[in-house]
Design a protein that fits this description.
Elements lengths: L1 E6 L2 E6 L3 E6 L8 E7 L8 E11 L1 H8 L8 E2 L4 E8 L1 H5 L7 E4 L8 E5 L4 E2 L6 H19 L11 E4 L6 H11 L3 E7 L3 H4 L6 E5 L15 H8 L5 E6 L6 H6 L1 E9 L21 E3 L10 H16 L7 E6 L3 H9 L6 E5 L2
Parallel strand pairs: 11-12, 11-14, 12-13, 14-15, 15-16, 17-18
Antiparallel strand pairs: 1-2, 3-4, 3-6, 5-7, 5-9, 5-18, 7-8, 8-10
Helix pairs in contact: 3-4, 3-8
Amino acid sequence: MVIQSLTNERKRKVSVADLRAAVVREVGDAHALKVENDFPTPQLKPGQVIVKNKYAGINFIDTYHRKGLYPRDLPFVGGQEGGGTVAAVSDEAAKEGIKVGDPVAYSVFGSYAQYTAVPASKLLPVPEGVGLDVATSCVVQGLTAHYLTSSAHANLIKPGEWCLIHGVGGGTCQWAAQMAKLRGFKVIGTCSKGKADIAKSLGCDELIVLDEVPGASYEDYESVDIVSRVMEVTDGVGCKAVIDGIGKSTMDISINSLAHRGIFISFGNASGAVPAFPVLRLIGKSAYVTRPKLLDYTVDRAELVSRADEVFGWLKEGKLNVSVDRAFPLDQAAEGHIYLEAGKSKGKVLYQID
């Protein structure tokens, strides 16, 4: 096919064949994600660029889409996080200074593919000194951790107060633990024994190490009395914010670990969806609860860029330690999801795309 682009005020053509992509045609287990070699290459539309992907991030939300927990229209190309170089630009994107060859990262649906059409407003220029693998890792997990530690708590926690973060041994909450410390919070982290080495490097003030659940992406949250430990560490006060991406297994722990007028921030379902609970559960401490998502904390380009600039700045200054655990070739699409869901990762998991 032919993609029209505009670079330096001149039209040029970029010819690409049908692309290789990991596609879901029927929801199901990891093997529902099938690699196809003749999926239609996206058409360049006004205001867009075409990105030739080098990496795609693998996130738990991708598994929720694949399983149908968060429904999407079928068929769809998996993923919503990518990084690579600009292959073609629309007239509108060119006028914003975007050029073919620019290194970029982004979050839009359809990143498990060789090429993705991305609105120019969603592009994050990757600064010199930040690798494309790290930049790709930043877009969903890094920006999620940023809004969780800067905004989702609605300023109900102040510097010097306690924050409980579950699952700091892998993924988003590795970022969140470090960012919470950068914001001056005192942090209690939970992790499995198998990820304690990673968790200990994050600067948590207290680390609660739990037994592992074989084959699962979360820890055994009954192996330690976490609430008692939290109350002991905080002198009976509790935590003004709890950041919880685990879900079903930690809901009670999270609510019971709150301080008066604290906030339960539930953002993930690693152990299963959070069950419905009566709002009266919150009355004992006049507590708050929120179920946020990244799109509502990057509502326009100004907010997106502001968050990304702070994260990239911390990376360049060496204040954030980002662990890229493993990069699967795209041909092993199912294996990437299986690895993530089995709880094996100690950091970001990616697809490397030729």
